[in-house]
Amino acid sequence: MTSRNGGKILIDQLLIQGVDRVTCVPGESFLAALDAMHDADIDVLVCRHEGGAAIMAETAGKLTGKPGICFVTRGPGAMNAAHGVHIAQHDSSPMILFIGQVERAFRGRGAFQEMDYEAVFGSVAKWVVEIDDVKRIPEIVARAFAVATQGRPGPVVVSLPEDVLTDIADVADAPVITPVKPEMSIVQFQQLEALLQAAQRPMIILGGSCWSADGCSAIADFAARFKIPVATEFRRTALFPATHPSYAGDLGFGQNPKLAERLKSADLLILLGARMAEVPSAGYTLIDCPTPKQKIVHVFPDAAEIGRVYPPTLGIVCDPSSFAGSLNWMKAPLDIPWATATENAHMDYLTWTGAPPRIPGDFQYGDAVRQLLAAVPAYWESGKQQMYRRMGDPTTPSGSTATGVTRCRAPRPRRPLAASATASPPALWPSACSPTAPSSSLPATAAS
C-alpha cells in the first residue's frame, strides 16, 4: 500500500465505484479532495450554485441508476444543496452528497460555518455520516454506495472534516459495490397469478425508480398480452408508451376524472414500483386507508414501504424491472373479461389529452402546446435532441405547472428511465409491442 492523504483516498474510492463525473461548488473545506480530482479521470462540473449542483447529481442518479455525486462546502453551501437531497428522497434517486466540515478539534464549539449534518439532513437522507478517521474512508464510502442503491434508492450525506482529508494513511481500497436486487419467489408468482385469474377489473400502476429499458419493455409486453389497463404515477410517464393500447393515462395533477373513477372501481391494483403518495392518489382519496376496497399487490424493492400506507393483499419485495421480466412466464387467459374496459380506458385517455379545455382570454395555452407538439417530432428525430430523448420526458415540469402540459400533450412514444448501471441506453419505443424472451431468473416450472 502507498501512503495517501484523505482527499486522494476518497477520490480513489469514487473511481473504483465507477464514478466518472461529479458536480460541485468549490470550497476551502475540501481542498484536498479537489486537488485529487485534478489528477483523476473524473469530469468535474463546477456550478454557480449548490442547489443546481445537487439537483444535477440527483438527475444523474435518476437517469443512470448509479449514485449522482456532489461536493459542497460547509454551512450555507450544505443548506443550498438541501434542495437536491429533498428531491432525491421523494423521487427515490441514488445520490451521495459530500460536505466539507470544520476540523475535528473545532466541533461543538460553534466554529465558522459549523453544522450538525445528522440533525439537519436526518429526516430527508437515507443515511448521514461523518468520517472521523482517515482509515475509515474506504469503508464508509463503500457503505454509502450500498445504502444509496439498495432497497428504495435515495440520498446519502457524508460529512468530511477538513483535517481528515489532509491526514496521511496506508489503507486498502474497498471493492466495487454491487447492489443486491431482491426477486419474486415462485410462491408469490403463483399467488399473483391466482389473483389475476379471479379479477374482473384489474389495473397496473407504474412508478418509482430502479427501472431499466428491458423492464419497461417487459411490462409493455405483459400489458399487451393480458390487455390490462396501465397508468403511470406523477412524473413517471416515461415508463410506459402513451401509444400503447393499454395506456390509461397518468396520475398527476389535474387527473382525468374517468381515470380516477376507474381506479376507485378496480377490484385488483398492482402497484409496481409505485407508492401512491399524495399526488397520484389525489390526496389519498383514490384508495381507502387503512381498509382498501381493492385487492392490492404492492411490488417494491424495499420492504419498509410495503404496507406503510395501504395494507396489501400480496406484498412482494422485488426490483420492478426484475418483476416485469418474471411476468413473461405468465400465460394470458384465453378469455380476458376486462379487455373491453381496457380499450375504453385508452379511448378516455385520448379524448382527455386531445381536446384541451378553453380558458378565459384570447390566448389558449392548450392550442399553443398542441401546435408545438405537432412541430416537434421531425426535429425530435433529427439527431439534435439526443440529450432530451435520454431524459425520457423533458416536457413535463414539476409542481402545479405540470397540469396543462400533461393534459394537452398528444400521445407519442416515451423513453424509459434507465435505472441499471449495466443496461444499454434505452431505445425508442417500437410502434408495436411483441413478446420478448423471458428475462427472469424464475425456473421454467413457474410457467406451468
Give an account of the 3D structure:
With 448 residues, the chain is α/β, with parallel strands linked by helices. The protein folds into 2 domains: 4-169, Rossmann fold (3-Layer(aba) Sandwich); 186-447, 3-Layer(aba) Sandwich (Rossmann fold). Helix content is 36%, strand content 14%. The chain is built from 15 helices and 14 strands. A 6-stranded parallel beta sheet has the order 3-2-4-5-7-6, sandwiched between helices. A 6-stranded parallel beta sheet has the order 11-10-9-12-13-14, with helices on both faces. The chain has a two-stranded antiparallel ribbon with strand order 1-8. Strand 9, helix 9 and strand 10 form a beta-alpha-beta unit. Helix 1 (6-16) packs parallel to helix 6 and helix 3 runs parallel beside helix 4 (76-91). The protein is elongated, with a radius of gyration of 24 Å. The model is unreliable at 378-448 (pLDDT under 50).
The largest sheet has its strands arranged as 3-2-4-5-7-6
Mean pLDDT: 84
Number of helices: 15
Number of domains: 2
| Class by alpha and beta content | alpha/beta
Name the CATH superfamily assignment of the largest domain.
Answer: TPP-binding domain
Strand content: 5-15%
Helix percentage range: 25-40%
CATH classification, class level of the largest domain: Alpha Beta
CATH fold-type name of the largest domain: Rossmann fold
Query: What value does the Rg take, in angstroms?
Result: 24 Å
Order of helices and strands: EHEHEHEHEHEHEHEHEHEEHEEEHHHHH
Could you tell me how far the N terminus lies from the C terminus, measured between alpha carbons in angstroms?
A: 55 Å
Main sheet: strands, sense, barrel: 6 strands, parallel
Poorly predicted tracts of residues? 378-448
Q: Which geometry do the CA atoms define?
A: elongated
Q: What's the number of extended β-strand segments? A: 14
Give the second-level CATH assignment, the architecture of the largest domain. 3-Layer(aba) Sandwich
